Amino acid sequence: HIYADAKNASRAVAHEIAELIRSKQREGKMAVLGLATGSSPKTVYAELVRMHREEGLSFQNVISFNLDEYYPMEPNAVQSYWRFMREQLFDHVDIPAGNYYVPDGTVRPEEVAEFAKQYEAKIDAAGGLDFQLLGIGGNGHIGFNEPGSLINSHTRLMMLDNSTRAAASSDFGGLAKTPRKAITMGVASILSARRVVLMAWGERKSPVIQEALEGVVTEHNPASYLQTHPNALFVIDEAAASQL
Ligand code: GLP
């Protein structure tokens, strides 16, 4: 779906999420959301907060799992995705404490594999993801699944690409201080969601969007794996669509 601008596009995405939450409420069930960080989803979270405040949209029946976190990372550090999610969404809505999860950037290296297994087990125990929200990196990464990630990859520690680190370096006061690793849900974990919505705004994303949508399915552009998903949608603005 191509929208004139990010604001209108974000509103449509927020409305789909709100509709999912409400329909689950009517059934007395939990809505299990996979959430994303980065600048792209900020406008979606802002719209959800507005709907909570002005329209009484409740998050009491929401469980959420974030895609990724830098490693190592303290939860209260300014760059942490845990903090990002609280500031953008969780602190402003009525989601019960304990219902939202972000990969833990403080686990010891030898515990990461076990942590990753448990993270996926929690998603399974919640009934699997009803909805996965995604942004896209300039190199096609989804979550932090960098190029080379396999379609059957699961939650794990990932070495970040130089281009990814460079894009994040201004948040960390330079490349040398930018983390080299992240914990990310895998491609298989993302593709297991019953619905996937990827968002991209701006001219900068237009080449990678063109490749992901119209190119071959390849590990060189992990977002291209979404072509294999039966219920995936790209929501983009006109600038991001300019090379289609
Ligand atoms: C980071 C995140 C991704 C996100 C990407 C794009 O690398 N780990 O989940 O999609 O950035 O970010 P932005 O939306 O700011 O362009």
UniProtKB/TrEMBL annotation:
UniProt protein name: Glucosamine-6-phosphate deaminase
Chain ranges of the Glucosamine/galactosamine-6-phosphate isomerase domain: 5-228
